[in-house]
Design brief:
Blueprint: H1 11-15, E1 20-22, E2 32-36, H2 38-43, H3 48-51, H4 54-61, E3 72-74, E4 78-80, E5 83-85, E6 93-100, E7 106-112, E8 127-128, H5 129-144, E9 151-161, E10 169-177, H6 183-190, H7 195-209, H8 219-241, E11 243-244, E12 266-267, H9 291-310, H10 314-344, H11 353-366, H12 371-376, H13 390-402, H14 408-412, H15 422-435, H16 439-448, H17 459-462, H18 467-470
Antiparallel strand pairs: 1-3, 2-9, 4-5, 6-7, 7-10, 8-10, 9-10, 11-12
Helix pairs in contact: 5-15, 5-16, 6-9, 7-9, 8-9, 8-10, 9-10, 11-13, 15-16
The chain binds adenosine monophosphate and magnesium ion (MG).
Amino acid sequence: MQANTFHFDNSYARALPDFYAPVQPAQVPQPALVQLNHALAAELGLDGAALDSPEGAAIFAGNTVPLGAQPLAQAYAGHQFGGYSPQLGDGRALLLGEVIDVLGARRDIALKGSGRTPFSRGGDGKAALGPVLREYVMGEAMHALGIPTTRALAAVTTGEKVRREGAPPGAVLARVAASHIRVGTFQFVAAQGDAAKVQQLVDYVIARHYPEAHDAANPALALFQAVCERQAALIARWMCVGFIHGVMNTDNMTLSGETIDYGPCAFMDAYDPATVFSSIDTQGRYAYANQPGIARWNLARLAECLLPLVDADSDRAVALVTEVLDVFPARYQQHWLDGMRRKLGLTTVQDDDLALVNDFLALLEAQAVDFTLAFRGLADGSSRALFSAPADFDAWAARWQARQPALSKQVNQANPVYIPRNHQVEAALEAAVRHADYAPFQRLLAVLQRPFDTQADAAAYALPATTEQAAGYQTFCGT
Ligand code: AMP
Ligand code: MG
């Protein structure tokens, strides 16, 4: 097999000609591979060894367009921080094409940072190395935690500096997704007022992601219900690991149910539902605790796009989607409580489970205890030492013990010891960007690949930042 043998099968390009612009990636001076995801390459049926080469670097930088690729920039709209933008689209990304992976699933391979497109507006279409590596490590960490996500196939530097503060190295991320179709894709199409086009997109998404909806009495409604269910499950998974996406705009929410667009995202340290890291989220719209509500809000925007297909009678269409939206909080709560039961090792369902969970979280909040360590330490009894007033913990732990929680091995499988700690991520990115030293990044990535297993010499990766390190920590959009 050769580096440029991908066996593309480009269904989006074929089926949805009105929803993209063909583009070619920009040529860059000096492509160099920083990281290649061999495990993912194998999953995609690609030849990782062949791609781990100058030819591979040229492909992932956009200099060589592999055989059968059909590069295109997808059109989408979206609500950003609640305000509607009619035309966003891939301004610095392109879809190279789709491959069928070894399990038979269709996967997009896209480049991010690959140059200007018709949707770039004022932007340069480029990406800086820091944000590219940040997306790489966050996505892989989420994947290893078992959370649906887009993933990094490769990161390359381009040999140019990008126009950002400090003139950082330019980079391109090769990203793999179940698809890149977003709530904003529907908004873009629906805004054109042509129900037949929305139908085209509905048919495509059903065929690709929700084939069971095809035979439903009301396929558009069945699709909507299925998307709501996947998002309820996804957000619950985020909440159970303390993940804060940071920019849950409708263009950053997939129809597939994968996490997408790791910009200002970060994991919470001390448990505080109001936690916000993103520098631009001044109102805390996308704070930790707001995520389920925002997901529902985004899904309501999706519902608006689907109304004409749900029922010809608009009142009836509204009633039908509202019914689905109204059960979203309960569906989310169910997924979340199931997740929390696993974290506490509760193997039976009891009426006071919710109180047991909430009382634990209230203790964490009151005593500013690290969310990840507090759960992880339940199995071996090390949680207690994290509490400044351990008597409160003891009282709670007695109730918890009375429930005869599962064996520690099982509880540990639900509570990671390693998450991408903010200070570790920053240190790894800084070494890469400032000194082209990728060792800290690679080490961090390796540790995060096995988040549930205590690893030798990795104790530092389990620890939260010191108070000084954590003070005022902010993340920035990866533009
Ligand atoms: P994001 O913050 O990545 O979700 O991007 C929001 C929108 O801004 C998308 O339409 C992006 O394609 C666009 N965008 C972000 N950065 C750039 C850039 N450097 N050049 C062109 N478009 C960009
Ligand atoms: Mg985005």
